[in-house]
């Protein structure tokens, strides 16, 4: 069995995930998209040490990323790939008792009581966007904005909110889709992208490519682990960034400010 071989080879214990009951506070340390990207699952935390189930315990990049995100030391244990995928699906599905706030407009008034239920929708704590009082009038914006977000529910919520403010919104679910839109010749004035995406190009790499393809394009990035992620990708002070979770009013003001910069 591969897990047994890896366990012996690297001197790292193997575990049976069926014997674990993971606490929700531990699960929240790592967003679902990161767990899926690296095939990892947080099992327990003792002090400053996080026990991390991994398919590949030699993946130093994964452990470094998670150290940056959590601020904890990582102690790996080996698990089978099939079991970790099942466990990720099980635990993160059970943890999604979150209401994602979505912007809906009726008679040009934002209805802040309208909520999108995120049960089973793939929203993690780092994706949660909070409503607040928004002091921008609907229709105030006019620029073409591209949003890049791999979470369908969050992408829809952001698109509706920006459309409410009058922006022309184009949506992409990953870096490859975003690049195709940028190369289409449309006059996109601002790229708004999550930094952490599960497959291929991350948000920092996308932002750099966007600047190469579209001279003068404005950039705004977002992440639940902004400072650590930007340092990890050597992009500190390279791009403006807004921390998740953010208020819709804060996002609207930040977009307006960046778009009006000389």
Helix/strand layout:
Blueprint: H1 2-10, H2 24-27, H3 32-38, E1 40-46, E2 49-54, H4 60-70, E3 73-78, H5 81-94, E4 99-101, E5 105-106, E6 109-110, E7 115-117, E8 144-148, H6 152-164, E9 168-172, H7 175-182, E10 190-194, H8 203-213, E11 218-223, H9 226-232, E12 241-243, H10 248-259
Parallel strand pairs: 2-3, 8-9, 8-10, 10-11, 11-12
Antiparallel strand pairs: 1-2, 4-7, 5-6
Helix pairs in contact: 7-8
Please, could you describe this protein's structure?
With 262 residues, the protein is an alpha/beta fold. The chain is 37% helix and 20% strand. It is built from ten helices and twelve strands. The strands form four sheets. A five-stranded parallel sheet has the order 9-8-10-11-12, with helices on both faces. A three-stranded mixed sheet has the order 1-2-3. A hairpin with a 2-residue loop joins strand 1 and strand 2 (49-54). Helix 7 (175-182) packs parallel to helix 8. The radius of gyration is 20 Å and the shape is elongated. The termini are far apart. Residues 96-134 have low confidence and may be disordered.
- Quick check: average pLDDT? 77
Structural class: alpha/beta
Gross geometry: elongated
- The total of beta strands comes to 12
The radius of gyration over CA amounts to 20 Å
What fraction of residues sit in β-strands? Answer: 15-25%
| Strand order in the sheet with the most strands | 9-8-10-11-12
Outline the biggest β-sheet: 5 strands, parallel
Order of helices and strands: HHHEEHEHEEEEEHEHEHEHEH
In the predicted model, the low-confidence regions spanning at least 5 consecutive residues are 96-134
Distance between the termini: 60 Å
Helical segment count: 10
Percent of residues in helices comes to 25-40%
């Amino acid at each position: 069995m591969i897990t047994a071989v890896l366990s012996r080879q690297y001197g790292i214990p193997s575990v049976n995930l069926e014997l674990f009951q993971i606490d929700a506070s531990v699960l929240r340390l790592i967003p679902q998209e990161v767990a899926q990207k690296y095939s990892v699952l947080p099992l327990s935390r003792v002090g400053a040490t996080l026990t991390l189930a991994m398919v590949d315990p030699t993946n130093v990049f994964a452990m470094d990323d998670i150290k940056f995100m959590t601020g904890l030391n990582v102690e790996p244990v080996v698990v089978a790939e099939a079991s970790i995928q099942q466990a990720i699906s099980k635990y993160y599905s059970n943890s999604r008792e979150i209401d994602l706030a979505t912007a809906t407009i009726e008679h040009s008034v934002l209805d802040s009581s309208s909520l999108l239920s995120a049960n089973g929708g793939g929203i993690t704590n780092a994706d949660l966007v909070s409503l607040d009082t928004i002091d921008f009038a609907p229709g105030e914006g006019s620029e073409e904005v591209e949003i890049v977000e791999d979470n369908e529910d969050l992408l829809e919520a952001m698109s509706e909110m920006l459309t409410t403010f009058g922006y022309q919104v184009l949506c992409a679910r990953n870096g490859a889709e975003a690049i195709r839109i940028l190369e289409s010749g449309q006059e996109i004035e601002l790229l708004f992208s999550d930094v952490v995406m599960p497959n291929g190009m991350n948000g920092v790499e996308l932002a750099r490519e966007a600047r190469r393809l579209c001279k003068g394009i404005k950039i705004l990035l977002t992440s639940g682990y902004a400072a650590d992620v930007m340092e990890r990708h050597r992009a500190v002070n390279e791009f403006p960034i807004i921390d998740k979770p953010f208020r819709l009013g804060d996002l609207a003001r930040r977009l307006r400010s960046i778009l009006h910069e000389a």
